[in-house]
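As a next step, we paired sequence with structure tokens, yielding the entry below.
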Amino acid sequence: MRNALVLDGVIAECGVLRRTPAGMPALEFRVEHVSRQIEAGIERQVRCEISALALGDAALSAQARRPGDSVMLTGFLAARSARHSGLVMHVNTIEILEGTENGFQTEEKR
């Protein structure tokens, strides 16, 4: 079964690096996404904010990011916890995006 997500966005809020009980670095943050998508043949503007969790090396990489940084995240969706079914993006990789204007990715003009 597939569960994969790639999301471009802007860091909206970044938590403090902590350690799991097993000693693994963990960082929670929120990403704001804005794009134009095609749905049922009609273009629409999409805005959403998603909670994200990075563990291990991804957490150390995410720790260097600040609110306003444009990033590309790859990962998967999971429930926040066994008791809370709200979705969280678990981040495997985080990359800084270049060519941003006002906090949003800009397209290259030709």
Observations:
- DSSP finds one helix and eight strands in the chain.
- The longest helix spans residues 57-63.
